[in-house]
Amino acid sequence: MMTDEDILKKLEDSTKNATRHQLETLQSILERQSGVRYLQPYLSGCCAPIDAATYKRTVPLSCYDDYADHINQLAGGDHGQNDQPLLAVDPLVCFFYSSGTSSMKPKLIPYFDSALSKAASQIAIQGSVAILRRLFPPKHDVNKILFFIYSDNKTTTKAGFKVMAASAFPLQGSSNENLSQLIRHSSPREVIVGSNFQHQMYCHLLCGLRNYEFIDGIFSPYAIGLIGAFSFFESKWEQLCDDLENGYPCLDITEVAMRDSVIEVLGGPQPDLSKRIRSICGESNWSGIFSKLWPNVRYIKCVTTGSMSQYCSKIKYYAGEVPVLGGDYFASECYVGINLDIAQPPQTTRFVMLPTAAYFEFLPFDMEKNEAVGEETVDFSGVEIGKMYEVVVTTYRGFYRYRLGDIVKVVDFYNSSPQVEFVMRAPKSSFEIISERDLMSAMESFQMMLRNVMAVEIVEFAGYTNLESSPKKLMIFVEIREGCTKLRDSVAILRRCCSSLEDAFGSIYKVQRDRGEISPLSVSIVKPGTFDRLLQVAIEKGAPASQYKPPKIVRNREIVEFMEGCSLVTVRLDSLDG
């Protein structure tokens, strides 16, 4: 069993000769997987060992659609014929869901039982834990975490393989390592593996409040998970206090195993604790609420980069003086980077690329044109500080020169491994007229203006470009906090704000707008709770609650129709609908 120091030294050593480790990683993958059906059309005439240059010359860049048929075959039980596996030679264990936010339909990511991948993953996971323990040494008496995680929506494929969120996979089974993780959670396993997302969230809060003296940290995979949980808390705290006073959860919690496990955690009526929480929440001041409710909490941890950065200020509002730590760069397909400096501001988290986690390439990306520059990639040694790239991965588990869909900025090197900031999700096509980053930057300015002139707080937003209309049409859907203002009485002010919003979009939009290729901007204010209902619909369609990220750029007409049906008032810069 390695100590924290051993793990951190191993991580450190891997970054010192990162390029060599990358070539060894690619060699290990190809030695094992070069005979799979996906690679055979490209590598059948190549002599082993296959070097990086040959691999990149012969195997094309790929996207999920290139694997979809093979993945569907695997899900149906077809693992390949004539002893030729489809994607990987290792046994298939299960499938992970992607977040499925922009399309409403999550992708299936196959998880193969690869010893090499397990070893690389363990170093990343254990390294993340060791870094946290170095900054916050464990305490014997304050040793629980309030973790908003949901091992939900586990389904099975036609062939009987389980499908789940990648973040829930470590909690499956009954190994000693899994049990040791669960012991630290303030919620019992029955809550984590429950079948109703809102009931799970409620029980997480209830168990966290009961264990208030022992909570050391508060976790969520993504910032939106914390925002959702504590917005929910603001509306449910009185019911939670009633439950503590009674010693059992409200009748809404109907799942027997979950209900019984929570009753056991509560340990009977807790009138004094209920009174304490009522006195705190009765003030309706949510600033610094984390430390008010959990006096011994030392840190909050979640991913706050990319589209999650919009929630950072609200999390800091809830956190008060409690430090907010950024998460790591872990994708469903593979581990990508680790946050070695968790004390840095969370919204500017820098990730050190993990040289042994996968073989990485970087496709230059032009932010002005909102598209990749050609198909020539560079490796660790070829990236340049200050430039943007789309991440391309070759994994131990069946993806080869796969475009991950993430745009990163190289900001430095840690030893010889690139340090990157996550910028945004890549556009799906060159026809998109606004990037995720353009939209978020413009909406940040829009929020400041609305707050100043109308006392309005934006809860959530999303953009959609109708490429089929002539001229093209950009629609922005905005949800504001309930009770902020009467919108129909403020249409003129809202119109002025929307005009400023249009001026803040990127160069592609402005050029096409000036040419008349895009019609005037349309901004719809939707009903309070619209994005929560969208979350519920996404979960019903298979999206994992733990990994759900609200779509910023919508590409699915079903979502657009849903949003349009929830519209309260729509401002178009050339007209008004109410």
TrEMBL record:
GO molecular function, one term: acid-amino acid ligase activity
InterPro entries: GH3, GH3_C, GH3_M
Keywords for this protein: Ligase
Pfam families: GH3, GH3_C, GH3_M
Record-annotated GH3 middle domain positions: 351-425
Family: Belongs to the IAA-amido conjugating enzyme family.
GO cellular component: cytoplasm
Taxonomic lineage: Eukaryota, Viridiplantae, Streptophyta, Embryophyta, Tracheophyta
Sequence ranges assigned to domain GH3 C-terminal in this UniProt record: 438-558
Organism this protein belongs to: Citrus sinensis
Name the record gives this protein: Indole-3-acetic acid-amido synthetase GH3.6
